[in-house]
Amino acid sequence: MNKVKALISGVALSVAMATSALAAGVEINASSTGLAMQGYDPVAYFTDGAPTKGSYKITSIYNDATYRFATEEHKAAFEKNPEAYVPAYGGYCAFGTAMGFKFDGDPNHWKIVDNTLYLNLSQDIQDRWEGDIPGFIQNANANWTDIADKDPAELQTQ
Q1: pTM of the predicted structure, to 2 decimals
Q2: Domain count, the chain
């Protein structure tokens, strides 16, 4: 477990600036402009089985964050039930959340587990997370109640 914490601490330094400027609030991982998921379509993961960039012309706002969609149909599905499509932990890295941190979730490193979309920081982190998905989800769920409203940079100084 110490190796994992060391890895996470090292990663923390490289992503601190990217995750600290959140316009939409600390519970949602959004850019300084409020764009969630780096502009990727959250519905496409479920319908197309692949990360798909959304269009700046097809958007919806949910929890003060802007989501983009590849099609009007995806937008309509999202607006009908956004909780079915938004990624766990506000789009922060699932593995990082399991360790008690908030790192950018990369829309290209993802997995749907029990109808929930999870993002991870990188392929290496995704591989580690896939080693014990149920355990990491359990840890992340427990940690999220304590860290959801905290700024990512604040967590790195504890």
Answers
A1: 0.82
A2: 1
